[in-house]
Amino acid sequence: MSELDVTKDLKLPNTRTSMQEEFEKLGIEKGMIVIVHSSLSAFGWVCGGPVAVIQALIDAVGKEGTIIMPSQTADNSDPSGWQKPPVPKEWWPIIREEMPAFDPRVTPTRGMGKIVETFRAYPHVMRSSHPIYSFVGWGKYAPYILSEQPLEAGFGINSPLGKIYELDGHILLLGVTHDSNTSLHLAEHAIPNRVKVKKGTAMLENNERVWKMYEEIVYDDEPFEDLGKDFEKNYSVIEGTVGKASCKLMKQRPLIDFARNWLIDFY
């Protein structure tokens, strides 16, 4: 759909002011801790694009609030596991040798969308240190939430996801579904006897670039959409729209508690 078609599809433009009002109508409150997953295109035409969405979110949670977004860099991983797209085997050692080390200040996100990539460079936003599964955050609790993220458990209990759980934060899905709900990876750590595999990544150790090998579980978002639908049958999820985006707001902790049992039964 062209930009002209998008504008024709709206009576009025989406703006920072209109989206703040809609976020608040959805249930976003001052002081709230929110992990956000988003699709800019789902909003329709936005005056100011991703910057306006971010400003509206900040306005909605206020100076006492906290906004977290996943800022993953899946391309900084071992090329032997790449599928979208795969690369020739003879390239693998070259990539392991030459991939730039993850730098939270400059390494771009991959496949996370325009809102996250814009938020990454937004004033007073900080980023966690995990070379593949980093998070970015703004607000009161961002320094604590992003302060620790073990390499071997990027989505584990001591990760930013675990700290949001501890602080009883919320999940906000903006134009996306549960298959984009990163918090559900936290629940995967409850699955008994989950097989760990060797992973690799380029990172800094003592200010030197190294190719680091480590072991971690294989994260699998394939069942997340069905999991989320089952959760919504039994628990409170606020649904609404911001612009043209279908949105959902929910507490993270009840979802993770439900998901842990659901995934154990699934596997």
Automatic annotation (TrEMBL):
Q: What InterPro entries would the database entry show?
A: Amioglycoside_AcTrfase, Antibiotic_NAT-like
> Which Pfam families does this one have?
Antibiotic_NAT
Which UniProt key words apply to this protein? Acyltransferase, Antibiotic resistance, Transferase
- The superkingdom listed in its UniProt entry is Bacteria
According to its UniProt entry, the protein's GO biological process terms are: response to antibiotic
Question: Which Enzyme Commission numbers does its entry carry?
Answer: 2.3.1.-
Its recorded reaction(s) are: a 2-deoxystreptamine antibiotic + acetyl-CoA = an N(3)-acetyl-2-deoxystreptamine antibiotic + CoA + H(+)
Q: Which GO terms describe its molecular function?
A: aminoglycoside 3-N-acetyltransferase activity
Q: Which PANTHER family match?
A: AMINOGLYCOSIDE N3-ACETYLTRANSFERASE, SPBETA PROPHAGE-DERIVED AMINOGLYCOSIDE N(3')-ACETYLTRANSFERASE-LIKE PROTEIN YOKD
Give the UniProt family note: Belongs to the antibiotic N-acetyltransferase family.
What protein am I looking at? Aminoglycoside N(3)-acetyltransferase
Organism, as annotated: Salirhabdus euzebyi
